[in-house]
């Protein structure tokens, strides 16, 4: 029997623990440490909760300490790991305020990520806080269930009328919508000149930007935040171009891997993530890393990269579970598939944008097509769809895809994810067997037409 210690029990950790216990039963002793007070919070749903698009947070959890322990694990919550001795194979954690030392045969890091604190005057974490609390009242970071609950409680204060969201990535855009739905005046600030940069090319991000403006969100793109000012609480936010009187500031500028606690023994990626192989094993044999704290193989670039998504966390957790328990299993890589829905505008993407592909050294091109989902004689439930396919002109390999519509077209992106994974060429996609029935699509559908439009 091996003793396997798992540090962290959110999406990657929970998937890993459940896989080990459900597949291998009591063949191993599983011990878990997590510094949080709860497990498995779906952070992607916090904007829905804040914006009152769901009834409450209960459905945003899918596991807890009791469930994992009923399966056979020993789980220590609110127990931050302080030190790892890789030679002695021990983990030291604070359990109930006292030092606790646990030995291990195999070690799995599932410590996730933490909010980036940019160099902004007035923005600081409270010393010793594990919940990303700010020293300035109403300056909020959003990562944990507790952060969301705190924001919702503060919004009950009728004096909070104006909210600034810093960072126009997925979380920032979703939160901007949520606050506007709560009746707040919202300004969305980002250093780049668009939103969702990195996920979509600018013509599509401009569609989302207009969508937000049409719904009353003020956009302050191309501005660098210099200071959050206030006498004990937020009163204004100052950029290099303007000042905004606000009552609350949300910092959502991204996340960094939570790896500093682990010392310098393990090889790191350029952003500090644990560098792992396709078995999720680090540079120390028998020590694994999964989820947002680790690298992952990117099938679009065909290189090791960093793509922090809950879906990737779950898959890496499964891979590490089998390897730690003695079954050889390689991950097959990911494409970074993702999606967003704001005021009914649905956008999905996978792989590389044209800008990213070019930056990664590909001789990249894009083919784009807009058409109705169904033939024009279908008068109801018909809607336009825009699709972009990025491909390499030299190898003809599909590198990425983006789709946008006012209805749900999300299932289509899975085909492109598989195409990138399997190295499908743009010519092969053009001849792919896609069925036709007017209830669903056109005989010359937008996917086929976009592929046929690819140039040499």
UniProtKB/TrEMBL annotation:
Boundaries of every Pyridine nucleotide-disulphide oxidoreductase dimerisation domain copy: 347-441
Domain FAD/NAD(P)-binding: residue ranges: 3-317
Pfam family, one: Pyr_redox_2
Catalysed reactions listed for this entry: 2 NADH + O2 + 2 H(+) = 2 NAD(+) + 2 H2O
Top-rank EC class of the record's enzyme: oxidoreductase
The entry's keywords: FAD, Flavoprotein, NAD, Oxidation, Oxidoreductase, Redox-active center
Cofactor: FAD
Entry keyword Flavoprotein: yes
Enzyme Commission code(s) on record: 1.6.3.4
Alphabetized SUPFAM superfamilies for the sequence: FAD/NAD(P)-binding domain, FAD/NAD-linked reductases, dimerisation (C-terminal) domain
Family per similarity comment: Belongs to the class-III pyridine nucleotide-disulfide oxidoreductase family.
Protein name: NADH oxidase
